[in-house]
Amino acid sequence: MSPKSTVFVIDDDEDVRQSLRWLFESVSMPVEVFGSAAEFLADPGCEGPGCLVLDVRMPEMDGLELLEVLRTHRIGLPVIMISGHADVPMAVKAMQSGAVDFIQKPVNHQDLLQRVRKALAADERFRAEIGDPRIIAERLEQLTAKEREVLEAIVNGSTNKAIAGSLNLSVRTVETHRANLMRKLEVHSTADLVRLTLACRLRP
Amino acid sequence: MTRFDQASDAQLTRLLAELERAGSGSDELTRLVHELQVHQIELEQQNRELLAVRAVLEESRERYADLYDFAPVGYLSINAAGRIQDINLTGAKLLGQSRDRLIGRALSTYIAPDDRRFLKAHVADAIHSQACRSCELRLRPDTAAIREELQTLRLESALEAGSTPARIRVILSDITERKQAEHERRQRDIAAAAAESRHRLVSGLERLSAAATAAFDPQAVLNALLRVVQDLLRADRAWLLSPCAPDATEVHILAEAAVPGCPGEPLFDRTIPMDDPLRRLIRSALSASDPLQDPDPSAVPMLGGGFAPRSRLIVAVCPEGDRPSLLGLHQCRVERTWSEDDITLVRALAGRLADILDNLAVRRALTESEERFRATFEQAAVGICHRNPQGFFLRVNRKLCDILGYTQEELLARTCRGLVHPEDYDGLMQYIARIVEGTSYDRDRDRGETQSLELRHIGKSGQTIWCNLTMAPVRDSSGCLSYSIGVIEDISARKLLEERESKHRHALFRVGRISTMGEMSSAIAHEVAQPLMGISTYAGGALERLDSAPTEVEPLRLALREISRLASRAGRIIERIRDFSRQHASTPRPIDLEAISRAAVGMIEPEIRTNAVKVEIRVGADLPFASGDPVEIEQVLINLLINGMEAMRDVPPTFRRLCITIERAGAEQVRVAVSDRGVGLDQTDPSRLFDPFYTTKEGGTGLGLSMCRTIVDSYGGRIWAKPNPGGGAVFAFTLPNHLPVNTTDQSPAKSPAILADRKLDGRPDTAIGDPQ
């Protein structure tokens, strides 16, 4: 892969930001720091590969809002959120919004590094096995609602006949949908299709 | 042969002898003799006739003597002196004496002494008038020994014509029986008249009473009464006006009755302005004891319907409990002399009328009050019920039906049990028992408060209706409960608002609490966490580098510099916070701790109710103002109350009691103690209780008591905790008395800085959140 996987740090506190840069540099990880979400989105490298380290509490746009924006921008980077104080509802919400990890201040540096390494590895694997998450996301968006339903059913292991029965379609129509969605997602086998779908489920 | 015959015979014989002697029968003589003989024959004839007449007369005389003597009436003759000259047998018998003893005696001897002068006058009258006169005299009692009553004689007397000396013929007849009969008839007539009069009176009064009870409407009764009066007295018109008061400016005709075709306009319901004649009439009617007859018939023609009546009878009717009225009776067509009987009747009727008017006034008052009551009851904007001691409804009004959704009949067939939320039923029963007992109610009433209960009713469709119930007992004369009146107000809307407000307040309170302490701690945490995170991260990075390239010192120096810088940043933050809290202390003011306690309780009332905690405020006598800041001291109290309440969370609701005791502590301080019946202080470290961040509560900030101490300390007070002897804990603090030091224009004693803007919802201060 051409660009090296980078840790993108977004934190409004300069001291924290610089200390994180120092930490990741100490273990020779490429790191980019941004003072705000907007700054990050304006950066051409924001599509990765790599992972994001976010502070939940930031002025202007907080971490949760940034996750929403990332999703609309189809930026499929793994995210590690850092929160000031334990807040289970916020963690749940962050998870639902697609953040892969959630870590509480004060942060144990080894713990943080371990999670970042894991996130980077996951990102690399995805890109290797499935492709650019942005492209994949674009492809998935092309699917019609019906095709999505059929895709869900396929991933769940249903046969065409069973799908036709549950969706009240003819087997032939199901077969058409299946062919169409495989074409749109540019996969050639059911195994690839399932792998892609499952991998996407783990991403924002 | 009679003497007369013998004499005439003798005369005749002598004449014849003379003739013989004097001559021989000459012609002349012969003729004379012849004539004489003719005369003699005529005479003899006449004599015979006379004898015959005499016989007839004698016979007649005999008969008349018998008639005289045995006539059915007494005959007698008296002389001018009244002495009896002659009397027949009947007369003698009437006088009770034999005839021969009567002759020559005075008639008056036999007459009753009282009547003797009448006899004398009668006799004189008879003599002078020379005409027949009659009189009735009673006999002397002993003459009529047989009879019980005095015998009465009728005398018809006439002067005997040409009698000298004067003689009076008297016819005596016994009229005793007739007299008796006459007397009896008169007696009967009197009795009958009296009976008639009595009957008229009694029946009149009865009719009046009947009329008074025949109708319920007072106006109808009045009209009926007047009709009766008018009819009883056969008057053409009867009217009743009110008020019969000379100082009234106008009078009103209350009722009127008139015969058909009575002249003049109808008077009923007219108002007549007071004028002088009317005032005079009213005055004289009020002062007179008897009805006024025809008082100045020309005055007040208005009362005759514009027509002057011929005869009038006016009487004042004076009820005891009402203003007097004036009753008038008019005779319009003919003049009428009001009889004694009429007057008596009118007087009696006026008396009875007064009684009836009294009754009517009472009835009117009752009716009005009844109507008012009914209207109030039915139209009330709140539900009202009357409930008997057994718990059944006696009466329910429309609004109550509306509130509960039942019809009146359905409600009357139910008791409270089916209508009240099961959780509130026991509370209701206790409330009713307390009301019936009466003590608390009376006490509350003395204080001008009404005790009420908020409870949930269950509507017909099963919905819960929050109601405010106020009950009052109604007792009979012996003090037993007759029934109780319940006023039920639908407060669902208010409750909803309250609930919303409570949630809102709860939220605000939490926010407030957080913003005063939690927020601050959170802010502190965040502020301090940032440099700490930096420190930790630099240190972590440095460690990593030491592991991978231990000889490179320069980057480590950088990290250490950063760590040092970040540590001082954290220090500065803490310094700033300390400065902030120092600025916060405010100047002490005089505060009324009782008012502040109430305000604090009011602030957390929703929590109190939710937790079913009973809060009591006890205030010692002669409490001085304390010195402090009302808002801060209230915050202290709220904290202590909340802590107490939270400590009792696992205690059964009946034991959840919080008590605020405020009293003097020595001469210069006031002590406030908040005691609870909660878990107590066993799980705490007493030496750290008031330290910041020390907490035994899950989710507690550990700042509440610390803040309390800071506040109390800042006003020179002291705060401490000790176990409650009966279980639970007591948190107490003291504040110094407020001493008016300087001469501010505002007298602190008069205007203590209590929290005027806090409403306490007007709840009784002794029992808030009573879990009923």
Automatic annotation (TrEMBL), chain A:
CDD domains: LuxR_C_like, REC_FixJ. GO terms for biological process: phosphorelay signal transduction system; regulation of DNA-templated transcription. This is Two component transcriptional regulator, LuxR family. Residues 136-201 form the HTH luxR-type domain. The modification 4-aspartylphosphate is found at D55. Gene3D superfamilies: 3.40.50.2300, Winged helix-like DNA-binding domain superfamily/Winged helix DNA-binding domain (1.10.10.10). It comes from the Bacteria. One of its GO terms (molecular function) is DNA binding. Transmembrane segments: none annotated. Keywords: DNA-binding, Phosphoprotein, Transcription, Transcription regulation, Two-component regulatory system. Residues 6-120 form the Response regulatory domain. The keyword DNA-binding applies.
From TrEMBL, chain B:
Residues 741-772 are annotated as: Disordered. Gene3D superfamilies: 1.10.287.130, 3.30.450.40, Histidine kinase-like ATPase, C-terminal domain, PAS domain. Residues 523-739 form the Histidine kinase domain. Its EC number is 2.7.13.3. Residues 451-503 form the PAC domain. Pfam families: GAF, HATPase_c, HisKA, PAS. Keywords: ATP-binding, Coiled coil, Kinase, Nucleotide-binding, Phosphoprotein, Transferase, Two-component regulatory system. CDD domains: HisKA (cd00082), PAS (cd00130). Residues 60-130, 369-439 form the PAS domain. InterPro entries: GAF, GAF-like_dom_sf, HATPase_C_sf, HATPase_dom, His_kinase_dom, HisK_dim/P_dom, HisK_dim/P_sf, PAC. GO terms for biological process: regulation of DNA-templated transcription. GO terms for molecular function: ATP binding; phosphorelay sensor kinase activity. It comes from the Bacteria. It catalyses: ATP + protein L-histidine = ADP + protein N-phospho-L-histidine. PROSITE patterns: HIS_KIN, PAC, PAS. The keyword Ubl conjugation does not apply. The keyword Nucleotide-binding applies. Residues 29-63 form a coiled coil. NCBIfam families: sensory_box (TIGR00229). This is histidine kinase. It comes from Thiocapsa roseopersicina. The lineage of its organism: Bacteria, Pseudomonadati, Pseudomonadota, Gammaproteobacteria, Chromatiales.
